Input
Amino acid sequence: MAAAGDVLRQSFPEVSSGELHVLAVDDSHVDRKVIERLLKISSCKVTVVESGTRALQYLGLDGDKSSIDIDTVKVNLIMTDYSMPGMTGYELLKRIKQESSVFREIPVVVMSSENILTRIDSCLEEGAEEFLLKPVKLSDVKRLTNFIMRGEGKKGEKKISKKKPIRGLQSISIIIFLKEVKIVTRD
Output
């Protein structure tokens, strides 16, 4: 009998070795379609799933040891919504970063329509590569895919040693906060 992760992966086509493959996780059908379209415009292979649980199944991290097959799952980037029923994007991030030696180095981007600094900080501290505010724009996706492609080595293996962090929302939020402080002190 096939494991849940095997069945889920079999429903998606194979990815060529030179193609950037993104796993997009969002409970909103509309948001999944938007992300999928933006990624396809950026020449990415996209796998979309509707929940953190389905993402873990696809990655083979659902607790069924027989479903883990590194050779059949080649993911270069995981993009997940923060607010989802059942398992939040933050919980998915923690599972990937803490429980998986295989996927630990894969960049995870968390997306949300809510600009809550404590939430953003928690995700970045837990290992998220970036935190994007929705609606996600094509320029966000292109910046991320360019970053990932620069981090790719020969034959699609990641270069871990020269990984540079993306300047993102956290830096922008701090700058905005400092500007607000300057405005307040001038009054």
The radius of gyration is 17 Å.
